[in-house]
Structures are given as structure tokens and as C-alpha cells.
Amino acid sequence: MRYPRLYTKLWVVSIAAAALLLVYTVMPLHSQASSGLPPMTPYNTLYSAVVVSTPMTSNSSYNPNIFTTSGIWTHQYGLNYAYLAMYNLSSGTWIPDLAYNWTIQYNLTVGNMSGWAKITVYLRHSGWSNGQPFTCWDLYATNLIQALIYDALGNVTWVNNYTCIIWVPPDAVVNSNNLMTFYYVSDGGLGIFINYQLYEPFIENLSKNWNILYAANFGYGTPQEQSEGASYIKTEFAFLHKYEPTFTFPPPQNGPFYVCDITPSEIILCKNPYYWDANNIKIDYVVLYQFTSTTPLFAALETGELSFYQGNLPPSIASVVLKNPYMNYALTPGAPGDTLYINFLWPYMIYPQVRQALIYALNLTQVAEAAGAPYEPVPEPNNAIVYPTINPHSFVEMVQYWDQMGYPLINYTYNPTEAAQLLESVGFTKRNGIWYTPNGTPFKLVILVDSGSASNPQLMAMLTTVENQWNAFGIPTTITIEPSTEFPQIYSTMATQYALAYRYGPPGFSIIIPDLFPVNGYFEGSPINVTHWWGEVTLPNGTIAWLWGPNSQTHGICPPQQVTVQQMKDCVFMWAWEANHNPWFISLDTPYEEVWYNT
Q1: Are 511 and 16 in contact (CB under 8 A)?
Q2: In angstroms, rounded to a whole number, what is the distance separating the alpha carbons of residues 311 and 592?
Q3: What is this structure's pTM?
Q4: N or C: the chain end with fewer CB closer than 10 Å?
């Protein structure tokens, strides 16, 4: 089947908080009779798919709370929820969305607001899909929810429905020469996903406790207030994780599309007539087929039944899909991709020499080749936070920076001889082809993988290659697969039973700061301590420092007074040096995501 050429826009945007790659695609929707849209035809509809273990069966099974565990929302985020603004790092231009303009007053000098930044945001007259206006109250509500993931923007206040002020405290440092500016205007690359009226009871409860939420998010107030805030966040996020707001289907959504109908086989999205740019969206519907396995997905792509699909296909499947003359794909680069996080509770992992040796003992080119396209080997220097696929100029600048300082980054080119010397330097010995620890026991490794990830044959090809290479080097290694339902709690319940754990790495270097400790854990409330690491590092000058934990003096390398672009880069480059020389993770590949489309 060939569909007419449909016009889409792909805005690939690098945005602050975590170097998020946002692909914003203008797509269709559906709610035939109730939406006032014309009937659904192949000329006004786009077709895509999601693969889920348990499909939603009806409208009553839909929960608009994006923090719940169904996971299906992730394929709609960006379609159903709009952004204040987006920043195109490659062109240096802004893409206004719900906000049409904003002004920033830096370093106020008035009274008790001295040192603060005042960001005034002017909203368009856009609307939720039920006709309710999108107002500053929705930004206020979103900010409160973000406080539960330690991501509050600041103190959001209301001037009128369409004029909001974000008050940013001094320690968050916003000025005219600081990349933090991008974070606040774009809300760190997040859509504005909370409707004040829909979540009003929950929001009102949070607002009554804003003082301790604020203390925990920004480190203000007394130690007791900060501690109370942290405890409150843990409790309330657990509640949010299960929360289902009261609503009549379809729930209000403020993006260009909204969920308007659900069947056991399809999720239908309809165009939001109240979205500010709705008249320029030429598509009326998006049909998301709900598949329970990849078999029907691959068949639908091969026959051209799908208009688009964002996701990587095994090379054997991709070659078949490409035989259809109307099917094509584009690649969007990512970083750092598939990652093994090192558990510091595992015997001898506390030694950086051991962690470095594990990387040297891997032929990472072969690891990536085992997966096949679109994965590519990691760049050298490896494990350096800044990635050339995301920030090529900064990557070159970082390498030169440390070369000039006399503390060059480590390339980690495959070198089993270097790996052996590093192990021997801390008392390891090799007998009969097996490495033994200083206490005389064999040095063994266990790689922990969740069952969902293990269902990906390309990933398992990589991990099996890692397993085989370490075994060949003389370190007995096994892979343990545990049910996905046990994660992330398993990092605590099996804290001493794995040496490394697989997780897909968070974006490594945003235009602000790298995502560091140690996994994003974004929608699970707080960083997931996969590594059980207290952040002890050796600085280039040999000084021991702790980035966090009970011994930390600075709680990080970057003090608040670092405000210029160069100071921020210096901070990021220091993080990169630490990740490279004192690795707490191992990057396995450079990922590229395929965006398949039917012409």
C-alpha cells in the first residue's frame, strides 16, 4: 500500500537539562464524530505502532498520568503535550511554542530578591483539547510536579492567565552569559504535561508544602526543612506513581493531538482544534496500532502499512523493509547509548585500576559490530561524558583542553596487555588462564540485565560479546536476567550480587551539565544508585575528593559561583576527566535511532 506524501516537520533540538534529542513531528489525530474533524481517510491519517506487553483495551483503561507504569504514553509525549519553547542548538535559534516571548532580568538588586533572576513568560492563547485555555496555572502545576523529581524551575508566580514569572534563586545562576538560560525557557526540554484542574487536589496538597519542596530542590532553608522535603518528595512521588486523576474521557491534552479513542488494537489520536497552530497541521488523525510482539510490527513495515515508526530494526529486518521502494529511514544520533554501570560493592571494584582494566580488556569495535547497524563503536577517548555525535565542537575542545593541561584523556583502545598490567599493579595474579584477586580467589563478574532489555537480540549480541571477551581474557563472566518488574528495587535487594548492571545511558552532555549520578532514573523519582558509589574521585592533581555522600564538602565539582560559559565548560570537562579516569560506567556503543517513513 502506498500512502500519499504527507508533510511532516522534524525539529531535532538539543536542550539543556540532559542533552535531550527532541524530535517534534507534526502528526495526525482522531475523534471522528466527537471532534468535528472530517472522516478518517488515508489522506488525512498517519499510521504508526507501539509494541506493548499488555495493550490498553478501551477508553476506560487510559490514565493520562505520564508517571504511571504502562509506558505507552512515551510514544505520544511531544504529540500530546506541547512545550513552552525549544532551542535548536545547531542553528542557534529558538522555536517558540506555547510561549511566544519571554524576558529575563538577571541578578536583581532589589531587597530580598537580590541575586535572583526574573524570567517573565508570555503565553499564546492556546488551549487544551477540551477547550480549556492553557494558562500560567498549568505551568505552576507542572513546576510543583517537577519538584517531586528534583526538577523545579524555581518559584512560579501568576501575573495573569497569560503572563507568568519564574523566580530563579541565586544558586541556580542565570545571567546573560550563562547557558542555564536555555534550561529555564525550555523547561529543560519537557512538555508542559500537567493540567491544573485535572490534578487540582494533588496540586493543592503540594502547594501547602512548597516551603520544604523548595528547600529540598534548591538547598535552601534549614537542614531539617531540607530533610523533611526529601522525605515528603519520596512519599508523594510514590503516590504520584499510582495516581489516576478523575476525568471524563478524553482527558485534556495541550499538544497538537490528543488521545480520543482506544480499542484493543489501536490508540487513536485526534487533532487538537484549540492548539495555537492547529490550522497549519494538515493531518487530522494518527492511528497507533498496539502490537504485543515485533512480528506484526515488522510485517506492517515491510508491507508499507505504517506511515512512520521511530525505532531501530535488526539488520535482517531492515534489509527486507528497504526492499519496499516507498520505505526509507533517517538516522538521529544519540549518546552514550547502551551502558554497563559498575557496582562499587563488588569486590575490588573500588580500585580505578580494576575498572580501567575491564575497559582495556574489551574490543569495543567488535562489541558494536556484534549488534550491527545502526550501532557504531564508541568514540575515543571513551567514557568522557562529552560525545561527538551530540557536541562535536565541544568534544574536540575537551580533548585539547586536557592535552594542554598535561592530563590527557585515556583512549581505551583495546589493549589486553595494559589491562593485565593494571590488574597486576593492585595485586592480581593470573594462573592457568584465570585472574585471581589479592586474597587468592578467582575474580568473577556477573552482569545484571532486566528481561525487557534482554528481549532485544541486538543488545544481547553486544552483552554476549562482552561476556565472551572477558572470559577469554581470564575473568569468568556470566549474564543474569531478572524480571523487569523487579527493577529498580533489585539494585537494593541484589546489591551485592552483581558486578555490573545494564541500563540505557542517559544523555551524556547537555548544553548545561552532564547527567552523572549514575543513571538518570528520571521517571522513578530520584537517581537510581546502581553503582552504590559515594563519589570518591582523584582529581588530576592527585587530591582525593568526594562528589557527594557523607564526606563531601562541595556536593559536586561545580560550585554555584561558576557562571560564565567557559566556567561551565571547565566544570563539564572536569566531569569528563573523572568519568574517563575514574569510570563508574562503561559505554558500549554510539547509538543512532532510525526514523522510518513511508513516502
Answers
A1: yes
A2: 9
A3: 0.72
A4: N
